[in-house]
Amino acid sequence: MDSQQLPALVLGTNSNIHQTVFSCNGVNNKRMTRLSEAELYEFMQSIIAMNPDIKDPFYVLDLGSVKCIMDQWNSKLPKVRPFYAVKRNPDPIFLTSLAMLGSDFDCASQAEVKAVLALGVSADRIIFANTCKSEAHLKYAASVGVNLATYDSPYEIEKIKKMHPKCALLLQIKVGETKIGALPEEVIPLLRAAHMAHLPVVGVAFHLGTAVRHPEVYCAAIASAKMVFDTTVQLGMPKMYMLDIGGGFTAGPQFCEAADTINFALPFYFGNEQSLEIISEPGRFFAESSFTLVMNIIGKRVRGSLREYWINDGLYGSMTNMLNDPNCATGTIKPLAVESSPDNPTCHGLKTYQSTVYGPICNCFGTILTNYQLPELNVNDWLVFSGMGAYSSSAGYKFNCCDTTAIRTYLAYSKRGEPSMKENKI
Ligand SMILES: *Cc1c(COP(=O)(O)O)cnc(C)c1O
Fold first, then answer.
1. Which CATH number fits domain 65-286: 3.20.20.10, 3.40.50.720, 3.40.50.300, 1.10.760.10?
2. What pLDDT score was predicted for residue 408?
3. In a 3-state reduction of DSSP, which class is residue 299?
4. d(CA 128, CA 150)
5. Which atom of ligand 1 is least distant from the CA of 172?
6. Residue-wise DSSP of 198-246
7. What is the rounded average pLDDT of the residues 168-188?
8. How far apart are CA 88 and CA 283, in angstroms?
9. Cβ contacts of residue 106 below 8 Å, gap of 6+?
């Protein structure tokens, strides 16, 4: 199969997810055509050309990126089992590819547990990592056999005892600025309370918040977790065996720094713990770079040297994150000028202008980009936003015209997964 024939899969509600992802090979050791960056842009052009009248925004989910990022995880943190935090992006094909690449899942609600089980993933690959679960959700978890959850309050113990008495627990401890987690003085009462309720506390969890900037904090957090392990022994309770180091990872050099810190701290603090299971809850790390959002230019204005453009998905749709999340916009923004520059749609070498880009909503929050250099574009050209997978489709909600849940997703497989793909060739 050459790249021209790469299947452009539009995901309908009836699509058979497993078959779709398998037929997309590359996942699960199958061979497939891999696209270079230029080919990826050609692929987007082909999607646009296929339906020239459709100007709706669309996503490209790059399974090559998913594979690449999983390889990075496995090479840097081979002893840490990832439970992908579904809340970041619950796209079913994305979840399936992660499941097939060996990831397990951190679910925060009944709906997320359902979505993961629907992929055929077994319940023992799910952690209910929400320290405040409703009774109904706990009852559901019990009924499907999701038997591992976090807690940080005695009220949670009461609910779990009542609704899910077979659940094993991780005590969530507070580290840094996050609102979740038990304070140091609450640890002993919380361990005792669970013990009294006959609920086994099998380990400790922490989450340092998103996009952790100072990886040293993993070291301090692992040290705090070890103190809780020791406290359990002093209290005469069964020995803990599970450590959950949470999420907070971003792709790139920061990931390597975090991994180095963790790989130093684990043997340093837990070197004498035989058969320790180490798990984690990365969300952004897997989701962010895997999705690209392609949006149509629906309006233009020229004022002197300034170019202003309106695109058809605004801050209240997929781009809510740009408004709320200072860590967002790690990706790139590139033109796809299929209308005004069909022979050179990526506009290589063309003069650029100071540009402002607005979403379709007429209020002062609608600005997506300011002072951004773009070539001269026109209505019906497109803008390609990479790195849009964290939050974008799950955080968007219906507002004006933007129903982000309705945005189509196409699959591609870029060459980013190249090096390790060679090992998998058949
Ligand atoms: C949101 C969340 C995560 C994932 O965070 P990322 O920054 O996406 O890695 C992990 N654990 C908990 C408890 C969370 O709330």
1. 3.20.20.10
2. 81
3. strand
4. 7
5. 13
6. T--EEEEE----SS-S-THHHHHHHHHHHHHHHHHHHTTPPPP-EEE--
7. 94
8. 6
9. 83, 84, 85, 86, 126, 127, 129, 247, 281, 283
Question: What six digits make up the tokens of 308?
Answer: 């202003």
Cβ atoms of residues 67 and 420 within 8 Å? yes
Phi, psi torsion values for 14, nearest 5 degrees:
-95, 5
Calculated CA dihedral for residues 195, 199, 200, 203, nearest 10 degrees: -90
Q: Which atom of ligand 1 is nearest to 178's Cα?
A: 15
Q: How far apart are CA 257 and CA 217, in angstroms?
A: 11
Whether 282 lines ligand 1, by a CB cut-off of 6 Å, is yes
The CATH number of the domain covering residues in 9-64+287-424:
2.40.37.10
Ligand 1, atom 8, residue with closest C-alpha: 283
**Dist. CA 300 → ligand 1 center (Å):** 38
**How does pLDDT run across 213-224, given as a tens digit for each residue?**
899 999 999 999
> Is 362 in the active site?
yes
Could you tell me if the CB of 210 is within 6 A of ligand 1?
yes
Q: CA 196, 208, 228, 226 torsion: positive or negative?
A: positive
Q: Which of 328, 362, 401, 402 is catalytic?
A: 362
Question: Are the C-beta atoms of residues 5 and 25 closer than 8 Å to each other?
Answer: no
Q: Model-level pTM?
A: 0.86
